[in-house]
Amino acid sequence: HMGVLRDAPQGLAYLRKAAEGGLVDALLTLGRLHRGGSAHVPHNVAKAVPLFERAAAQGSTEAMRELGAVY
Fold first, then answer.
1. Helix or strand or coil: residue 11?
2. How many degrees, rounded to 5, is the angle at CA 56 between CA 27 and CA 19?
C-alpha cells in the first residue's frame, strides 16, 4: 500500500517492534535493510548479523543464507 511508503518512519517503527517480538519475517526484513542500507536505514552489517542470527535460531533457512553471504 502506498501509504506505508509515504510514512517510512512509522513503518520502520512497526517493523522494529515486530523484530523485537521475534517475528522471523520482521527480523529478516530489518536485517536486509541494515545489510543493504536505504534512505531510512543506514548500511550497518553489525546490526544486520544479530537480526539474522535470531531468525536463524528459529529455523529460518533464509536467515542462514543471509549469514552465509555476510561471512
1. helix
2. 15
Q: What is the pLDDT of residues 8-19, one digit of tens each?
A: 888 899 999 999
DSSP state of 1: -
Confirm whether pTM is higher than 0.90.
no
DSSP 14-71: HHHHHHHTT-HHHHHHHHHHHHH--SSS---HHHHHHHHHHHHHTT-HHHHHHHHHH-
Burial class (CB within 10 angstroms; exposed 0-12, middle 13-18, buried 19+) of 67: middle
